[in-house]
Design brief:
This protein is mainly α. The chain has one domain. The chain is built from 11 helices and no strands. Helix 2 packs antiparallel against helix 3. The protein is globular. It starts with a helix and ends with a helix.
Length: 255
């Protein structure tokens, strides 16, 4: 575990110095702050739009950071040969990959945390109280971002940063529309090769929409604890699967 945390700390320090981290955080914070210009709407509508806009910014900013940072971590170490002295230590490649993922996730969490604090401050200013479901919505957004970071880390073990970015973004989009679009294709397709292919894609892609609690936050809906537990378990399992797949390939790769 010590080796994992050493890599995670190194990755955190490296990522926190990258320009993309500062630019994306400042951009999303600026958008969240600009939501104070919604005073043309009535108070009830204004708060709903504020929640919608801010949660969208938090998710988009977190996903963009997870893709950008996760896509460059491993390839940059391999290209700059920084990985060679690390592998000379009593450190396995699996530990290295897990450490890179944790470093990326912690960095993204810091950015998401800053956005969430700004969002909470605006909510407190407008409705003089903070929704009890706000923390849960942010936590499940972090879990969704962790899945994206794990996928980016996995793909980066065999692809360049540019290819990793494109593939991860495509998986992110597909995982967001999985239920509505791909589920509809499965229902319309007849039994055969095409339906089997759709089913394979459907089950391989992460169901990212189930982590989006924005609607319940906006409408103050109560979500059953059992459902939240199932979603959290699914998210953790998918992260473990992605990292295991990446570790399996990376362990046999020449660097």
């Amino acid at each position: 575990m010590t080796g994992i945390w050493i890599i995670a700390r190194m990755s955190l320090l490296e990522n926190s110095r990258k320009q993309v981290f500062h630019v994306m955080c400042l951009l999303m914070l600026a958008v969240i702050a600009s939501s104070t210009m919604l005073s043309i709407f009535t108070e009830g509508v204004q708060i709903k739009i504020l929640k919608d806009l801010c949660m969208t910014c938090i998710l988009f900013g977190g996903a963009a950071l997870a893709i950008a940072l996760g896509a460059t971590g491993v390839p940059n170490d391999v290209e700059s040969r920084t990985i060679h002295p690390l592998m000379a230590r009593p450190l396995t490649r699996v530990q290295y990959l897990i450490g890179k993922f944790l470093g990326t996730f912690i960095t993204v969490s810091l950015g998401v945390g800053a956005m969430a604090i700004a969002f909470g401050g605006l909510i407190l200013m407008y409705q003089h109280s903070i929704d009890s479901s706000l923390g849960m919505a942010v936590l499940f957004t972090l879990l969704e971002v962790a899945i994206i970071a794990a996928i980016a880390t996995m793909i980066s073990t065999f692809a360049s940063p540019a290819v990793t970015t494109v593939l991860t973004f495509m998986i992110y989009l597909a995982g967001t529309i999985k239920i509505g679009y791909i589920g509809g294709l499965i229902e319309k397709s007849q039994a055969g090769l095409s339906k089997a292919l759709y089913l394979l894609i459907y089950h391989a892609l992460p169901n990212l929409e189930c982590f989006n609690l924005k609607s319940s936050l906006i409408h103050n809906d109560v979500i059953p604890g059992a459902y939240l537990g199932q979603v959290a378990f699914y998210g953790v399992c998918y992260i473990v699967f992605a990292l295991a797949a990446g570790s399996l390939y990376f362990a046999s790769r020449e660097v």
